[in-house]
Amino acid sequence: MTRQIILDETQITALLPKVDIRGALERMFRALAEGQAVQPPQTLSLFPGDAGDFITYLGVFAEEKVFGAKLSPYIAGDGKALVTAWTLLISMETGTPVLLCDSKKLTTERTAATSIVAADALAPKHASVLTIVGTGPVALAHLRYAEGIREWKQVRIASPNIAGRTVIPEKTTNGVAITKYANVNEAVRGADVVLLCTSSGKPVIDVASLSKAAVVTSISTNVANAHEVDPAALQGFDVYCDYRAMTPASAGEMKLAAAAGSWSAESIRGDLPELLSGRATAPSRERPAFFRSIGLGLEDIAAAVALLEAARA
């Protein structure tokens, strides 16, 4: 019988340097393109008495012979609410669990890796100026994953409260100086790639500051209809997403723009399965490209598979 493995945050932290999260995600998205993975809709379940809720992120990764779920509860309390997440992998061959792991760090890693898979696919090869908006753990993970995709000449990190952030490195691992900006739009101006990595529920940049060939990535947060760019700006972007079958119904700016009649999901030029299989329409470079991810259950499953391989090794 296959040994079942349970990993907590401390054990995962020790294993992560040995885990290729980006490679696992790329394999998964290619499998999704070829029908060797299935992404069911995520579901929100409410606790009685306004005590909280939990989101279920599901996925079937047939290529790796596993299926599973990430359960992410929001537990209301008298003081600060508790948010946790755990991922369960089950063998498609035996029907028994093979891994249960804390998902907190894995969620950060797969979120950043997904953005960078998209940025690498969409950005011009000569891109040389990188801007990261945000200074938290997710932003710093984006920096780690982004360092190697281009030969950056400038790396900028921006946040209105950046003066109080002491964890931002002075240089990338490649020796490129990191410039800190309190004015986000100033940091965005002239950038080739802009990675939005905040938990904001409202726009964090003025899209007028973007160059016409810029590539912008944006992530999700648990704020209702959260959006890091103005929904009205979508009509001026070449729009991409992680999975076109699900993202438009969940991403805040897409839902709001569609409801306002200013944008339609039919205008999406490609998602990650299409980008990685060569089936997506390339950016026009006549206007900015915008990539939106919502966080898929299959991303959690793929990250957990990579972690399982490292744990077994």
Structure description:
There is one protein chain. With 313 residues, the chain is an alpha/beta fold. The chain contains nine helices and 16 strands. The strands form two sheets. Strands 1, 2, 3, 4, 5, 6, 7 and 8 form an eight-stranded mixed beta sheet that branches. An eight-stranded parallel beta sheet has the order 11-10-9-12-13-16-14-15. The longest helix is centred in the middle third of the chain and has 19 residues, at 104-122. The mean pLDDT is 94.
Question: What is the end-to-end distance?
Answer: 17 Å
**SS-based class:** alpha/beta
Beta-strand percentage?
15-25%
- Shape from CA axes? globular
- Which regions are unreliable across 5 or more consecutive residues at pLDDT < 50? none
Largest sheet: 8 strands, mixed
Mean residue pLDDT: 94
Q: Kindly state the number of beta strands.
A: 16
Structural Rg = 19 Å
Helix residue percentage: 25-40%
Q: What is the N-to-C succession of helices and strands?
A: EHHEEEEEEEHEHEEHEEEHHEHEH
Q: What is the number of helices? A: 9
Explain briefly what this protein structure is:
The chain is 28% helix and 24% strand. The protein is an alpha/beta fold.
Helix and strand arrangement:
Elements: E1 5-7, H1 9-15, H2 21-33, E2 37-38, E3 43-46, E4 52-61, E5 66-75, E6 82-83, E7 86-91, E8 97-102, H3 104-122, E9 129-133, H4 137-146, E10 154-158, E11 178-181, H5 184-188, E12 193-196, E13 215-218, E14 238-241, H6 247-250, H7 252-260, E15 270-271, H8 272-276, E16 289-292, H9 297-312
Parallel strand pairs: 1-8, 9-10, 9-12, 10-11, 12-13, 13-16, 14-15, 14-16
Antiparallel strand pairs: 2-4, 3-4, 4-5, 5-6, 5-7, 7-8
